[in-house]
Amino acid sequence: MLKVEQQQPVEFSPALITKFDEIASRYPEGKQKSALLPVLHEVQAELGWLSAAAMDKVAEYLKIEPIEVYEVASFYSMYFLKPQGKYTLEVCRTGPCCLVGAEKVMDHIEKTLGVKENEVTADGLFSWRGVECLAACGFGPVLQIGPEYTFYENLDEQKVDTLIADLRKK
Amino acid sequence: MARKLLLEHINVPGINTLDVYRQKGGYRAVEKALKTLTPDEVVEEVKKSGLRGRGGAGFPTGMKWSFLAKPEGVARYLVCNADESEPGTFKDRYLMTYIPHALIEGMIVSSYALGAKTSYIYVRGEMMPQIRILEKAIAEAKAAGLLGKNILGSGYDLELYVQPGGGAYICGEETALLESLEGKRGNPRIKPPFPAIAGLYGCPTVVNNVESIAAVVPIINESGDEYAKIGIGRSTGTKLISASGNLVRPGVYEIELGLPVEEFIYSDEYCGGIANGKRLKATVAGGSSVPVLPANLTLKLANGEPRLMSYESLSEGGFATGTMMGSGGFIAFDEDQCIVRNTWNFSRFYHHESCGQCSPCREGTGWMEKVLHRIEYGHGKMSDIDLLVDVSRKIEGNTICPLGDAAAWPVASAIRHFRDEFEWHVREPLKSQETNYGIAKYAEPIAKAEVTTEN
């Protein structure tokens, strides 16, 4: 993961700008602010999180005020305003998943990784957190890993071990 | 075997591709609508079908469409609500994953009916794999001349885009969704004006759930009158039910509305009963927002008749002895589950998801979470139980959007039906940490005296 310090300036690659342009073309003339959420997803996929410098750059691109970006990035739960592990395990913690053992899975992840919720492991590989309902209640417990939000269903402690071992090998 | 309109071909290999979808009769509705029907005739068929919004509110879709303002020279929009986030609901994810073209086809026909030239599918951001699936399906449809300029030579133009959300339950509320689509925080708007008059970018807009839009396809293929013959009373057609919790076979099922709840839970065609040979304690029949019911009232109405999976039957008895169809998120709790713990869990969810705009919801959801937490963890007072009822009443009806009600109802209903379990937590703080209250009287036949008419 590219580590970006808070004040370090950010430059978007031409490929990323092309992607932004394609996104912005989906909306009527003058309504390009609509591109904000998808553009932030693209930036986060590239940088791993959203630094103030990155958000300022997005504001510049969309010709809006930086505060309009900050208020959106801080409202939605998917945007990280702090650096995360390379893999962030997001476990559903809502009712239906808890009925089938989500709390046990979270305890196991905490023990296995040795870090608390929202903390990053020393090697920078992992972080984890409980998130609200991921709309897969029938296949719980579930977790997802960005930026492509790959889904892991019907989890138990053994499956979590396998998953973490596989990710370490990558 | 019950009729399947949406999931009939779910197991056909390759049904997620345009070719196989067309082989199975896909895109017939587009041809029929664009070549033989006027937009108003499509609206008329949907009205006749009696289709009710599948996102949770149950408002008649055709009626919603007919409210759309059509001023000259102003763009109109159709926005599909695929921000599926209601705990217990996962049918839209399922549909989009396996039969994405059913939604695309529905979007084309519905956009044509409403006169929209640009339409958006707002998908919750966490469903990135489904977003990729839909984008691929749209590209396929476009290459086949089913989207873009002059669709099938009809002269009708439509561009369809997928918009990712950012992870916020509140964006399932239609005006919050529109705010989000405009690149803002998901704060619901004050209504009126309704989106039908001033929606996306201030233009007339219809927002419909994924399943509602997909249901337009069989309605056009078979006619509204034919669709209305399926189901029971004013609950016409089929409904996708997301079944979760302690069931033998959780998953997504398409049912004909009017199916007895008992059959849905216990028959092998559906959920196959309660997992691990346990007994049913309670259910949440329509997603976390609707009132929780004890097992006895889930299976039977207060008068002893079987309860059916329909809008009317599920809400029979009001909130005293009934619940709601909601989004069809059916959660089953076995005898080992703790109602207090689950209610606290749901309260934490609503506190987390409150947008913070209205004080009763912003503050009240947090208070309810705190009070429930202390009861669950053995620090509760007897007065806390009525305090919860008091807070829930002060949230309900006092907020801009229904999230306030959705947060209040699960708490109020849990106390209404399971007060003894809350009291037990307070009286036995240590014991309640080690063991659970169990099933008590909830699975027994309904005692007449317990049925109150208070709502």
Structure description:
The complex is a heterodimer of chains A (170) and B (455). Chain A has helices at residues 14-24, 36-47, 52-62, 66-75, 95-99, 102-113, 157-169; strands spanning 87-92, 126-131, 143-145, 150-152. Chain A is of the alpha+beta class. Chain A has two domains: 14-75, Arc Repressor Mutant, subunit A, CATH 1.10.10.1590; 87-169, Glutaredoxin (3-Layer(aba) Sandwich). With 455 residues, chain B is α/β, with parallel strands linked by helices. Helices cover 43% and strands 13% of the residues of chain B. Chain B has helices spanning 18-23, 28-36, 39-49, 61-66, 91-98, 100-114, 128-143, 174-181, 210-222, 224-229, 261-266, 295-299, 311-315, 318-321, 339-353, 359-376, 382-395, 403-427, 431-434, and strands spanning 77-82, 118-123, 159-164, 205-209, 231-232, 235-236, 238-245, 251-256, 259-260, 280-284, 292-294, 308-309, 329-334. The radius of gyration of chain B is 22 Å and the shape is globular. Chains A and B meet through helix 2, helix 4 and helix 5 of A and strand 3, strand 7, strand 13 and helix 15 of B.
Write the layout of secondary structure elements.
The complex is a heterodimer of chains A (170) and B (455).
Chain A: H1 14-24, H2 36-47, H3 52-62, H4 66-75, E1 87-92, H5 95-99, H6 102-113, E2 126-131, E3 143-145, E4 150-152, H7 157-169
Parallel strand pairs in A: 1-2
Antiparallel strand pairs in A: 1-3, 3-4
Chain B: H1 18-23, H2 28-36, H3 39-49, H4 61-66, E1 77-82, H5 91-98, H6 100-114, E2 118-123, H7 128-143, E3 159-164, H8 174-181, E4 205-209, H9 210-222, H10 224-229, E5 231-232, E6 235-236, E7 238-245, E8 251-256, E9 259-260, H11 261-266, E10 280-284, E11 292-294, H12 295-299, E12 308-309, H13 311-315, H14 318-321, E13 329-334, H15 339-353, H16 359-376, H17 382-395, H18 403-427, H19 431-434
Parallel strand pairs in B: 1-2, 1-4, 2-3, 7-13
Antiparallel strand pairs in B: 5-6, 7-8, 9-12, 10-11, 10-13
